[in-house]
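re the bet — no i am not wrong, look at it urself. input seq straight from the record:
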Amino acid sequence: MNTAAHTPAPHDAKIPAADHLRGHVTRLVPASTPSSEHLRDAFLAALQDGQLRSSGVHIGLFGSLVGQHLSGGVKLSDLAPGGLSKWCHAQAEGAGMQLTKDPHDPSVVRWTRRTNQQKESA
C-alpha cells in the first residue's frame, strides 16, 4: 500500500497570478518594438482570463512586468500616455468593458460586465 501523499501533476497546479500575468505580457507585448495596441491586447487578455478573475489585475504589477520586459530604450510611459491607471481604464472602456476597483486595493481591477454599448453592437 502506498501511503505517500498525492503530489499533483504539473497541469493540476495553479500558476500564481503574477506569473500568469507575466505570461500575457511576454506572449502579447514584443520586447523591442511594442506599440500601445500590444499593451492593450495584453491588458484586455488579462482582464478576461479566468485564472485572474478572482484575484483581479493589479495595474501596478502589470506595469512593472511590462517595464521589466521592454528593451531597447522603449518606455512604458510612451506606450500608455497619461498614466497607466487612466490608460488601462480607457482601454477597457473602449473595448466595452466595465471595471470595478477592489475595495481593499484600488490598484486591483476586475472586469465586471460589458457595457450597454458593447451589448448593442454584438
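see?? The longest helix spans residues 36-48. told u. also Residues 6-12 have pLDDT under 50 and may be disordered. so pay up
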